[in-house]
Structure formats: C-alpha cells, structure tokens
Amino acid sequence: MATGYLQGVLALLRQRRWAGFAVLTVAMCVLFWWLGTWQWGRHVERSARNDAIEAVVNEEPVALEKVISNPSVIDGGVVYRPVSATGTYLASDQLLQRNPLGRSGFDVITPLALSTGGALLVNRGWISSSPTDTNQASADVAPPVGPVDVTVRLRAPQESSGRQAPPGQVYDIVPEQLTEGLPSPVYAAYGQLLDQEPAPDPTIELAGPIDTGLGIHLFYAIQWWLFIVIAVVGYFAVLRRESREGSETDTQPEGAGQVADQSHPLN
User: pLDDT band at 87, cuts 50/70/90?
Assistant: First the structure.
C-alpha cells in the first residue's frame, strides 16, 4: 500500500499542475523566509538601540561642554545623555515645530545662548494648538527672561523633510539649518528639556521617558516563519488527499457502477 501511495504521489508530481504548485510553494517559502529575516533584523537593531539608550539615559547630568568638545560634531555615545547648561533664552528666535511625531500641536523650540559661548536649541516640550487657529499655540509660550539653568537630554538632529512651514515654525529640528542670527557656534545636537531653574512653564508638557520597547518585530518574524511550515504542510496534505482519491478510483472493481441499475429493473 505504501508503495502504491508513493507511486501515486510521484505520478501527481509529474503533472504540470502539481509541478507548478510546487514551484509556487517554494517561492512563497522563500518570500516568507526573507520577510521573517527582515523583521528579525529590525528586532536586533531595536534591541541594540535600546541597550545604547539605557547605557546613558540614567547617568547623572554633567556640564554640556564636558560631554561635547566640538559643537559641530555629534558622537553617537552622547545621544540621549543628560547634560546641564546655563544661559539665556533667545525669545525672538523661538520656533514652533508643527505636529511632532504626528501629534497635533507644537513642540516649543527655543535657542539658549550659553554662558560658555555658542547656542543650543532646546525643545521645551509640547503644547496643543489653539482651538480657534490650528496654526497658533493654545497659550503664550514665551520663555523666562534672564539666566536659566537647564537639564536637557541630548538628541540627534532630525532628518530634514524639506517641507516649508509658516513663518516662525518648522517641521523638523535640524540645528545646522537654524543658525541664522544665533551666537556661534550652534551645537549640532539639540536638547530635550528635562528640568529647569526657574521652573518650566506648566502649560508646556515636558517630554516623557524614551521609548525602549522592543515592539512587535520578533512576533512578526516568528509569524512569517510559521507561514513556511503552514505552506509546506498544506501542500503535502492536499497532494496526499488527491493521491489517495486517485488510488481509490483506480482500484474500484469494473462494473461496480452498474450494480445499482441492475437492482432496479424497469417495469
């Protein structure tokens, strides 16, 4: 019986239709493997990113100039690190970043003229847009006057989208594109405000903790690889069923289909 079943399977595989199904199944498996591998790579990258963030994000703040010796250069090891600085906010050069990370409203970007020289762009946090004019903030976001002490988390510049925003607003925080009128040098990194003396404006929402979740890339990788098993098992299951049906048809006794007719003679 096993020999007959194997012969039936081999006979089906010699048919063009089943050979085509085999090629399609292999192609699907290759695609599923590639998609799973890509998702696994994203998972590994996210894990490495989180490890790098956690290595510096909870360190004690140190003076900005001790962490960055060359303002125009960003060392990857300093991104997300908390630093402290003293200076004076330049209210006339303040900008609003539109819809940061897709969130309706604005991030308040205020240059800080440093007491040690140069300027650092500081993201002071988020504020909603005005209910009567979505192009304006819902409240006055003028910075405090006079010297301030800030603690910020260093962030790498955002990728420029090239979109044009209304005057006094931007879509992306790219310090090298926002240097006009500011004390030189302007730091290539910008700061995400964590704390301030005098106290931060309560109407502006400070940034929360950095997201270090792993996301669902690992789940997707496993899902795509499981599809390979499903495709292969499904192919052979259908092949086995059709082979079995073909074997039963071949072994049916001749004349069996006439028995029913002979058992009911015509009157």
Answer: very high
